[in-house]
Design a protein that fits this description.
147 residues, alpha+beta, four-stranded mixed sheet, 4 helices, flat
């Protein structure tokens, strides 16, 4: 029964994505991957200059709380990871793994993606672009994993 509901929901969302693509042709879709370990999340934070974190609309309050803890940790870690030794990074990965375990116990999963961007200010004298990598982290219910 749950699988059938998820299948119906995924088909609806697939059709909805087509409608959104037609309505918003200037938006970019990114390929997200399921993020399964604390090390994967830690390495994401290490390579990114900015993070966009989000949870699904239908997640429970315990999932939102666990996701918020991960998002806060990732943002803090992103700021200081360059100063960490390798052994400190391993400890950070373990702490992220514990936070991920809380999400798993609540039936949630994490997907992530990255996107390289270049910024140039309209009023900059030097128009050399500033290069950045933006990370995207999404926490959602288990049945959405096949999207």
């Amino acid at each position: 029964m749950v699988k059938k509901i998820c299948d119906i929901r995924m088909e609806f969302e697939r059709l909805s994505r087509k409608a959104q693509d037609a309505q918003f042709p200037d938006r970019m879709r990114l390929t997200a991957v399921r993020t399964g370990t604390g090390e994967e999340l830690g390495r994401l934070a290490e390579i990114c200059n900015g993070l966009n974190c989000h949870w699904g609309e239908e997640v429970s309050k315990p999932v939102k709380e666990a996701a918020a803890a991960i998002f806060d940790y990732l943002r803090d870690y992103m700021d200081i990871s360059e100063d960490y030794s390798m052994s400190q990074k391993l400890s950070a990965y373990d702490e992220l793994e514990e936070l991920l375990q809380t999400l798993r116990e609540e039936g949630a999963i994490v997907h992530s993606a990255t996107r390289p961007v270049q910024f140039v200010g309209d009023h900059w004298k030097d128009k050399t672009p500033v290069r950045m990598t933006i990370g995207y982290v999404v926490v959602d219910n288990q049945c959405r994993r096949q999207l």
